[in-house]
Amino acid sequence: MLGNVSSVEVRSPRMIRFLLLFSRQGKLRLQKWFTPVSDRDKKKIIRDITHMVLARPPKACNFLQWRDLKVVYRRYASLYFCCGLEQEDNELLTLELLHRYVELLDQYFGNVCELDIIFNFEKAYYILDEFVIGGEMQETSKVSVAKSMEEADSLQETMEEYLNKPTY
Amino acid sequence: MSDVVEKTLIALPGLFDSQTGAAKITNRLKQLIKSITELTSKHEEENLIKQELTAMKEQVSSPNTTMKQMREIMVRAMYCEMLGYDASFTYIHAIKLAQQGGVLEKRVGYLAVSLFLNEGHELLLLLVNTVLKDLQSTNLIEVCMALTVVAQEFPKDMIPAVLPLVEEKLSHPKEIIRRKAVLALYKFYLIAPNQVQHIHGKFRKALCDKDPGVMTSSLHIYLQLIRENPDSYKDLTGSFVTILKQVVGGKLPIDFNYHNVPAPWLQIQLLRILSLLGREDQSTSELMYEVLDESLRRAEMNHNITYAILYECVKAIYTIQPKAELLEKAARCIGNFVLSPKINLKYLGLKALTYVVQHDAKLALQHQMTIIECLDHSDFTIKRETLELLFRITNAQNVMVIVEKMLDFLRVCNDDHTVIHLVGKVAELAEKFAPDNSWFIQTMNDVFSIGGDLLQQDVPNNFLRMMAEGSESMEEDEQLRLYAVESYLSVLNGDCSHLPQRFLQVMSWVLGEYSHLQEDLDPREVIHLLMKLLDHRRVSLETRVWLLSALTKLCEGHTDLILDLSESLSSSQDTVLRQQAHELRLLSQDSQIHGWALPRGATWDSMEVDSSLSFLDGFVSEALAAGAAPYKPPHQRHEELCEERALSLEPYVFSLPVSLSSCSITDRQSPTLPSVTSELSDNSTDLLQKAGSSALIFEGVKRVWGKDGYLPQKETTGIAPPVEESSTAVLAPIQQRAAEMLEPQPEPLQQNQEKQQLASSLFVGLGAQSSMSLLGKSEAPPPRFRRKPRLHDSSSSSSTSEKSSESSHSSRSTADSFLYGNLLEEEPATSISSFNHAPKSATANHSQANGLGQNKDIVSMEADRQANTSQILGSDMVIVRPNKLQDRYPTRVVSDLSTLIPSDLKDLPHSDVISLTSDPSLSLSSCRVFKDEALLLVIFISNCTETTIKDVAVQLNCGELETASLRGNVMDYLEENSTSVCHYTLLMNDPQTQVSFTGTVSYQTQPGHTNTLMFSGTLSTVDFIRPLVVSTEEYGKMWLSFSHDVKQNLKLLTDAGDSLRSTLNVVKETLQLHIVDIIGSEGIVACRLLSGAPCLLHCRVNGEALAVWLRSSLPALPDCILYHCQKALAEH
Predict the structure, then answer these.
(1) How far lies B928's CA from each of B281, B907, B931, B980, in Å?
(2) B255 in reach of chain A (CB within 8 A)
(3) Which of A124, B98, B449, B501 is deepest in the core (most CB within 10 A)?
């Protein structure tokens, strides 16, 4: 059933397969799949991985093996950031990629906490889309990501103001 | 619920009021999230979401819903989906939102689309127009959004629609657009590489982009391109090195820094590219030594990201051509990793070691104590990685300890995937390095009981095959089998209710086959044991079948025990069991049939599988004579059914060369056309099937390869000489230091001693091996269980591929070369020097080197030859076939080489020798030898230089044909001005009018410089057609049994007296047909495709033309033969 999880993208063996954010209680906060996965498999992966990661003792190795994928996870306050990647990939680098993502969130929300992500999850997705595309790092410059977010947002603000006017 | 969340929720209103617009949330979503957090049970949550979804459904279908509201609904739908509820009714609205909304709505719409819809989702088709529109928009943000969605999930068939627009964006003034366009193209390249082939030039422009971000993105593409074909991008090495130098030197804008490290992702990408480029290429490697050194030096800060870079650096250094100084530094670097107290670094260190020991096993020695510690580490991940490392350094001396460690781990491991993975490795090690029989069987018992029924099927299969085929020594085999029987009896005598089915199956097969070897064993005891198992409830149906087969083998003379059983089973619900029970009863009663059907101790070599079911021929022809309809395969019946209803709309998959249309299409009678179409479409399914089966076979070949040829050793021998001096030099001081470090700690002595003991048993052999590799022979001990090369007895494809793997194995395995040291110098037996020997000595030599099986091979080949010549004489054919096909090759004819055709092939009909290709060092020629059951392609490799050429390896590829290398395709040396010969057996399973083959020869004129020479050529069906000698009666029977037929009018040669006879003679000469009979104005002719499918031709003079009616069991064969007949007559 899950065999296809690993065999879909044989041609690109060095990309991230998925990114999950979940809370200490195992509540999913964000999910992004970079390769096509069926809904059933998604549920199974989410269940397995949250279970595995939450069971890890503190200070244990941040890397895990799940089937034929490597799982890299890191806990930030009450939130777990978790990536599935290929066997060949560099786990340490992915760990830092997660950290970079957190930095970007922090920069955007200003002292980010779990609630920011719960209530603004679509923003978290936008930031992710500026940062990683199709499982590959898109922009390594923190400034550029921030800038493109800002541009999009500024437009959003003006649009919002404009649209809001007639309703009042 | 977490306290933090709850507390904050209470303070929510204030919190959000104070936030700026960027974090503003919609009211409904806030409410929803808030109420969900307040819930206490899953059930309540379900109810709430259900309500929410119903409300949303109503809202979306209401015409009054504004875009703004829709956007808000979409966000809520995303939230519900994230919680795992189905909101698929919103998908179409997400697309609508992206299509119709303003920028703000579009953003949400696109996000929803990318979250909701998978790459394959059909609704995506509706998005194409929206994306096209947005790509052309003047609003940058819209363009960005469109590019993002395109890069994320555009399916293959929609790429052409957007490709030109995306391509255009490569020269957009804004770097963010260029960057996204590059990534989108990268994704396109991954999904459909041929569609973006024309823009490779633009990729180069992206690489030179002034914006570092765009350049970084283009590296994704280059990494992939170079991975697939490193040779085409060697010229870029300099650029990559320069870029890396600049990055490492901190020349990039500061905002690319990550924790003060300049653009780490970019660095790593470049390191990966460089390692691919420098692999096995000395001159390219030399270009990058300096920058690699620089990277190692700069990355000294103590942060994860620098370690990530170091790791890639080390990998690159060990992948490219080695340089002593760098290797030393890299080794020290790995030491830092492994010894680090940080667990993540330790893990990465182990991973690096695992990679590096494949090149240099001694490194493991330096860190033996750390490895031992990691083996007992509390963290599962570390343990697993350590075992992976141990697996790599296993040799004959330490195999017992390592396998023991792995089994210990497996016994406590409860992750199925890990178990399957490791158990396979244990089985592999056991087979490769087993020191004795009892250990081997015991280990395999553990493998089967731990692996259970999750075990991959090839583990038991390989094990049983090894048991059956045995090794080279009969005595050894007997011992092994005896021991297995003994061991299984004791297992079965114990409690066997918990044993996995696979294990039971293996045991029952071995007992059935070999329990007679143990002379003091009462067969009744075995029968009792097996019958006891049959009664067991937990035993699956499949296992019962295995058990019954075993009983059938043993039952002879013990009818009394069997009768009850067969009686009770013959009323079983399962038809297979019922049939087996029936067979069991009959065979147990009649010892004569039993001995005939199941001969005891028969060798497996003599086993023949008649895949064509020819023993049924009599029955079939009787039935046909009695008026039965000829058999049609299911797909044909289906075809015909369809044909009755509608026209076949399937496209032509199988294409005949263009010349066919020019010379013959007008000749085709219109009524036959539909039938031809049906044959062709029919053929397409056949082709597919064939392709599938051949793919499977290749996989099998690979697997065997992996088992026997220990891949690392090839690499080490390649690198060995330069590494040696340096690393032994490194080794000494480090070992010394390790020893010093150990000495001044006498306190935990006890524990340490234990560990050291373990270390000495784990790492034994590595040191010895290193001294051995000085001699250039790394992997010393020969594998204990060497598979015996199989006799090729049946024409079935699987056995041929088997043979190819065996023979290629025997010619390449270094273990062989070690064992047969100096014998081997003459081994590529076809080298000219050995040709001048008396043929007998060459044969003797050969058989010694390749074992008994090969010898048989030769004998059988000789037998074939005799059969062949007699048949040739019988069909009054000329020995050297005249060959018109030569005209196709414009190159000169190399006639003197034909004397070099190996003696055992000389008497077979063969074509002239033609030159294939040449370069200053080598020239290649080939000759086709027409064996009865195959076409042999003999390739002559001549060394034109005055020096010895080393490591010559020939590889032949042909997708349409089944190829198998017989011998000589790998040579260590090719002396100056000499010629060597290698053979390929080619089989044609799917008839094609013409197939082309390509191939490469790689060789080294001086160490480290591998050159390749490509060659290609074409073969036609004619090369694969052999006369079929049958009598007129046999012909008649066959005619009726074939279903694929084609009718056609051919040109009749009227210039000679007997026009029919002369026409047929012309055809016969070109195509090697057999004229069965000529009666009046009708003639019947027969041929076949190698030793496989026959094709029958029925010719009748019809006025000025010759009406030919072809029938065959293969759908495409008549068409191919017809084509060549037409060609032959036209050329006459």
Answers:
(1) 35, 13, 9, 16
(2) yes
(3) B98
